[in-house]
Amino acid sequence: MVEFDRFGPEKILRVYNPKVGMRGFLVVDNASLGPGKGGIRMTPTVSVGEVARLARVMTWKTALAELPFGGAKAGIVANPKTMTQQQRKEIVQAFAKALKLVSPKIYIAAPDINMGEQEMRWYVEANGSLKSATGKPANMCDKNGRNCGLPHELGSTGLGIYNAAVIAAKHAGMELENASIAVEGFGNVGYFAAKYLSEKGAKIVAVSDSRGLIYNKAGIEFEKLVDVKKKTGTVAEYKPGTVFPSSKIISLPVDVLVTAAIPDLIKEADIPEIKAKIIVQGSNIPMEKHAEDRAHEKKILVVPDIVANAGGVISSYAEFRGENAKTMMKIVEAKIKKNTELVLSNAEAQGTTPRDAALEIARSRVLKKCEWCGTN
């Protein structure tokens, strides 16, 4: 079910190619600040309602990061685990061709679940414009060898999460060095969040993936964990440590919980079980609004997704401008620190939640440019 309000969504496109079995959709939520920006996720269960919620997140995220983009998101209904690479390529390219009418004019693609730099290459090749997607491979450049891709595999989202955690720790009166950290998910986002946090002296004590959770109060060696994950396919095989179901990640005795995988991880009923003093939302929509409100009442500092995980879309902005990887990382760090500080300071001054403070800033920026939003 898609909910419409004064901000959007502006457009919902459903596309289908029976020859290759491609079925997908695009939601452009609000393009007042620029073409809609948002990734494509490929899962067998992705729905228009899910994509619409994520597109709204992108509207606020790009506005908060002060980027010349609006909010959008796309989905392809398919299970990549059951496809050959050729079938996957055909589906991605069929989707790209179906969206040529609007991409890149009002939609610019990016990676998301089960979509990486290779898929962005296929998308651009089928679309015909380098500007139609970001998160492209680093060797995909214009004819002059410039304006090359900046794949999300460089770790921009994880870097942003780390910097959001730095600012949050300051506001919580916590020393991030030696603070205990739990990271939910060990894909691209969780991997780099754990990497940067551990490199800066934080103590990773728990990491989960779809097959389980490893917990070691004394700390987990990051490089050893990476090796175990590569060899066994799961972090749960790391030793020494205690193995729990993945869902246990939210109730462990840690200082900071980083969400970096599934949506709707934390429900309102879970809040009494949470022991973390800070939650950094590295994943999109990991908590219900009521859950965030309850967390605020419990004095848990929650850095919302529209602030904390904006490193990916900021990286996209740098790529769109033709920046190199080093400059991109500097832009990510500066913007995440600035925006996290602004949101948390406003929340403290207003006595409200960080999400409410963030939404107030984002909405005001969109309304200044929106010619059709109205006043309701």
TrEMBL record:
Active site: 73 (proton donor)
Family: Belongs to the Glu/Leu/Phe/Val dehydrogenases family.
Gene Ontology terms, MF aspect: glutamate dehydrogenase (NAD+) activity; nucleotide binding
Name this protein carries in UniProt: Glutamate dehydrogenase
Residues in the signal sequence: none
Gene Ontology terms describing biological process: L-glutamate catabolic process
Keyword Oxidoreductase found: yes
Alphabetized UniProt keyword annotations: NAD, Nucleotide-binding, Oxidoreductase
Annotated site (Important for catalysis): 112
Assembly and binders: Homohexamer.
Listed SUPFAM superfamilies: Aminoacid dehydrogenase-like, N-terminal domain (SSF53223), NAD(P)-binding Rossmann-fold domains (SSF51735)
Protein residues bound to substrate: 37, 61, 316
Domain spans labelled Glutamate/phenylalanine/leucine/valine/L-tryptophan dehydrogenase C-terminal: 149-374
